[in-house]
Every structure is written in C-alpha cells, then in structure tokens.
Design goal:
single chain; about 150 residues; alpha/beta; four-stranded parallel sheet; two-stranded antiparallel sheet; 8 strands; about 30% helix; about 20% strand
C-alpha cells in the first residue's frame, strides 16, 4: 500500500498532480492549506494520495520552508509512506529561490539523505531535457531545472 503525501506550491499544481494520480487509478484529494488534524487525510483503506495546496511559489523562503515542513509533518503523521514536492513546471520562484530549501525541509521531515526533483509533468508546455527547462511560458528558458541534493 502506498500513501503519497504531496506538498504543492500552488493550487493549480496540486490539482494537476491529483488529476494525474487519479487517472492512474489511485484515490487522490487536494487539501487547501495544511489541515489542523491528520484525521481523514488518506482513505481508511488502501492506497491514496493527499496533496496539500499551499501558496508558496513566490513566498519568502523562510515562510515557504516553514509552511511546507508543517504540511510534510502533517502528511507523515496521517500515514504518508512517501513525500513528493510539486513545484512550478516553469521553475519560477523568488529570486532567492525557495524550491531547494523546501526540498531540504521535506527530506529532513522524512529522514531522507537525498532528494531528486524535476519540474516537468509532460502535459504542459514545459519540458525538462538534460537539466534544461524549455517552455513557451518559462521566464528563464535556459535555466537549469533538475535538482539533485
């Protein structure tokens, strides 16, 4: 049984991810913000996916990390067996960047020594090829977008 707990940087990304998971036949839900209780976050039986939708894409790094870490702790306490970070496929963030620090916070919450990330989801115009983001909507079409920590 897999219980995927995802932290998304915005509602659109959360819905995109939940939709893809549901298309694969797994029950998926989108939670608007971090719930105050872990009760009912995942289905009572079987596999499931819970995506916490935050508004962190352009938030200050410290705020984004704190909110994302709180969401991760909630998902883990609700029974998540895996954590996933959904971030913007065009890899835009604050100039200081909050994607990497959030990945570090989620790895720490899960007790993981490393994380692997890619922003490309396939259905959107954004693609990640050899670590480069390409998209008609991308602010930085030549920016590196794959992250290994």
């Amino acid at each position: 049984m897999i219980r995927l707990g995802a932290v998304a940087d915005d509602v659109t990304g959360a819905c995109d991810l939940a939709g893809r998971v549901a298309e694969a036949g797994v029950t998926a839900s989108v939670l608007l913000g971090t719930p105050s209780s872990a009760d009912g976050v995942f289905p009572a039986e079987g596999s499931g996916c819970a995506v916490v939708a935050l508004k962190m894409r352009t938030a200050p790094v410290a705020d984004a990390v704190a909110a994302s870490a709180a969401a991760a702790r909630l998902l883990l306490s609700a029974g998540a067996t895996q954590l996933y970070q959904k971030y913007c496929s065009t890899f835009d963030s604050t100039p200081a960047g909050n994607i990497g620090p959030i990945a570090d916070a989620l790895a720490s919450a899960a007790g993981a020594p490393a994380t692997l990330g890619t922003p490309a989801a396939g259905r959107r115009a954004a693609r990640s090829t050899r670590g480069r983001c390409s998209s008609t909507a991308c602010r930085w079409p030549s920016r590196r977008c794959g992250t290994i920590r």
